[in-house]
Each structure stands twice: as C-alpha cells, then as structure tokens.
Amino acid sequence: MVTYIDAASAPLKNTGAIRLYGPEDFAGMRKACQLTARCLDELVPMVKPGVTTDAIDRFVFEFGMDNGALPATLNYRGYTKSVCTSINHVVCHGIPNDKPLRDGDIVNIDVTYVLDGWHGDSSRMYPVGEIKRAAERLLEVTYECLLRGIAAVKPGARTGAIGEAIQTYAEAERCSVVRDFCGHGVGKLFHDSPNILHYGRASEGPELKEGMIFTIEPMINLGKPHVKVLADGWTAVTRDRSLTAQYEHAVGVTATGCEIFTLSPGGFDRPGLPPLKG
C-alpha cells in the first residue's frame, strides 16, 4: 500500500512513505539544484578531447567547496569520486579516471550537491568534439524522452504516466529503455520513495500529489535495453555495447503540474545540440 507523509514529520530515512514537501522545502531544493545546474553549465567548455574525467571530478569537487556544498556521491556506499562520468556504452555510474576523452565520445556527467541539507541532482549529456549522427540522434531522442516524462507530471496522474510517455516515444524512435535503473524521490535524502520507472502504463504506480519531489532520468539505448554491472560494483554498461544516453532533472509536483528545479541558468540543458525549435 502506498502511503504519503508530511516531510516535516518524517524520519530522515527511506521508510517507503512518499514525502510531501512545503513551500520552504521547495525553496531549499531550488537553491541546491541551481548550484548543480550552474556546475553543469561550467563544464560545457571543459568537456573536449584530451580532458580526463578525473579532471572533471576535481572541478566538481572544487566548485562545490567554493560554494559551500558537498558532492553527495563522495564516499556514498564506498564510491570514491565526486561525480559519475558515463562514456559511450556506459549506462550510468561510470567512475572518473585518468583516461582522456576522445573526439566522437558522448559522456553523461551526473552531479549531486548537498547544500543546506538538500540534494540537487541532475545530469546531462555532452558531445566530445565532432560526434556521429547516430550519437547525436540518440541524444536528441533521450532529451525529448525527458521532456515528455516531465510533461506527464501533474496531481492526480500516476507515476506510470511518466514511464508510458517515455517508453512510447523511445520505442517509436527505434530505441530501448533501460529497466534496471530508475528515477527516485529526492530532497533531504539522496534516494527516497517513490521509484520513477521510465517505462510502464499510465494506470500504474503511486498517485502524484502536490509536494512530491523526485528525479526523472531516462536511460535510452540505441540497441537492446539489457545492461550489466562490471566487477567494480558500480559501472553499468549495455550488454550489446550499443550507445546509451541519459538526461536528468529534479522536479517538484505543483498544484497545476510541476516545477523543474535543475534547469540550466545558461540555456545549456542539452549542450552541443542545436536549439529546440519553438
């Protein structure tokens, strides 16, 4: 049974109940999420051939320190880096290292800052130099999946409406949706209820209510949806080594729809791609 609870009276752990946040909580999330969005903006000119993901990791750590925030991933369940950098066929949780990015790569950079106790969680895809049209198309499809998932958010709908909107579009574009990972509640906790599946049916899942805060972060593959986790216990890759992409926003359900907390202040929500028409 799905239960909902006023976030102010809920214990600071994932109990399975869905927290409902108030206006002051939304203000805290805006601040944390905008810091994350600013960091992702600052990375746009940095992501180019020859740059290492370790250098990106150092930048994310230092940017957080300069702004009074901690990277949520640092020492989270044994993870030793401040950011996740997932390249080409890496679906998520790629660990930064000293290997340089190459021309034609695509990389997802996933940043979460903890600021005043609030978690600002977002990720974007970055093309490295000149990328092939197939990769560019995957980025376009994945970003559109994110937008369609967000458009499905409103009080009274169910979480399955988000998944249905994403799955319907992705599969119509001959891509597949990763099932092994999902969006999640976020706020005072890094990972909270509910889970936000990126596939499914509109009639399924918990009802969306004003005050809920969660991430939508579809992972879309050019090939089949199957993934495997490597021996390091973190890095998830496509089993068929097909390209994969992901974009992520943190959103809060409002009386009429939702607020996107992690929008780029510089207009770089889909860096390296042509501006959206209209």
Plain-language structure description:
By secondary structure, this protein is of the alpha+beta class. The chain has a single domain (17-260), classed as Creatine Amidinohydrolase (Alpha-Beta Complex). The protein is 24% helix and 25% strand. The chain is built from four helices and 17 strands. The chain has helices at 23-42, 53-66, 133-151, 159-172; strands at residues 4-6, 18-20, 70-71, 84-87, 90-92, 106-115, 118-127, 176-177, 183-185, 192-196, 213-216, 219-221, 227-229, 236-238, 244-246, 249-253, 258-260. Strands 3, 4, 6 and 7 form a four-stranded antiparallel beta sheet that branches. β13 (227-229) and β14 (236-238) form a beta hairpin. α3 packs antiparallel against α4. It catalyses: Release of N-terminal amino acids, preferentially methionine, from peptides and arylamides. Its EC number is 3.4.11.18. A divalent metal cation 2 binds at residues 121, 184, 217, 248.
Shape: globular
Order of helices and strands: EEHHEEEEEHHEEEEEEEEEE
Give the low-confidence spans.
none
Structural class of the helices, strands and pairings? alpha+beta
- Give the radius of gyration: 17 Å
Percent in helix: 10-25%
CATH-defined topology: Creatine Amidinohydrolase
| N-C termini distance | 42 Å
Residue-averaged pLDDT, rounded? 97
CATH architecture label: Alpha-Beta Complex
For the record, the CATH class is: Alpha Beta
Percentage beta strand: 15-25%
State the CATH superfamily name.
Answer: Creatinase/methionine aminopeptidase superfamily
Number of domains: 1
